[in-house]
Design goal:
Shape: globular
CATH topology of the largest domain: Immunoglobulin-like
Strand content: over 45%
Distance between the termini: 44 Å
Number of strands: 15
Number of helices: 3
CATH architecture of the largest domain: Sandwich
Structural class: mainly beta
Length: about 210
């Protein structure tokens, strides 16, 4: 019986190790002042070789992507960059030229230049729907990330209380109320301030 327990324990440890070794995109939390720009690197942690990668990125309301540039690491592998934006969602593809590939490694693959609008107050930046490709062109999932984007505390001092958000509602693309954005691929988040002013943004759930 003791030997059986040891075998089971070893099997569980092997599964845990396999789960921990995931392919993943990572972007650090960062701070940006309204009406300013900052460049943040995107990291790729791979346990598997990939011929290229693809992902979606959704910045919070008031934060904009001004430019993207491959890092020297990606360029040294012969990678090329393609991106497009629709409804606030950026689809990014980094693909191989010839027989290049991303090896199992952790490295910065892309630099993203962000600009904050004059009224930016922070939020969450989502990296989602990540994909990689084996040498046999089979697609596999790469986990995404959520980066917290904040503004310096000095910018928050003196913001009138009537400009603070007090209520949030979610709707589907047909304008019907929903309980959670997780129930649909893309939702509309409407935030109501104390003074009655409303803002809205699209929210995509991975």
């Amino acid at each position: 019986m003791k030997r059986l327990h040891i075998i089971v324990l070893c099997a569980l440890l092997a599964v845990s190790a396999a789960v921990g070794q995931r392919n993943r995109f990572t972007m650090q939390d960062f701070e940006i002042s309204p009406d300013s720009t900052v460049t943040i690197p995107l990291l790729l942690a791979l346990q598997d070789t990939s011929r290229g990668v693809q992902f979606n990125m959704t910045p919070p309301l008031g934060l904009y992507v001004k430019a993207m540039q491959l890092t020297s690491y990606s360029k040294s592998l012969g990678m090329s960059l393609s991106s497009n934006e629709k409804n606030g969602i950026h689809t990014v593809i980094i693909y191989q030229v010839g027989q290049a590939c991303f090896p199992p490694d952790t490295a910065e693959i892309l630099n993203v230049k962000f600009q904050a609008g004059p009224d930016f107050k922070g939020g969450e930046l989502e990296i989602w729907k990540g994909r990689g490709s084996t040498m046999d062109n089979a697609t596999y999932v790469i986990d995404g990330d959520t980066a917290l984007v904040t503004v310096p505390s000095s910018w928050l001092i003196g913001i009138p209380i009537d400009q603070q958000p007090v209520q949030e509602h979610f709707f589907n693309l047909q304008g019907q109320p929903i309980d959670s954005p997780a129930s649909v691929p893309v939702a509309i988040e409407v935030t109501t301030m104390s003074d009655g002013h409303c803002t809205s943004r699209k929210v995509a759930v991975r």
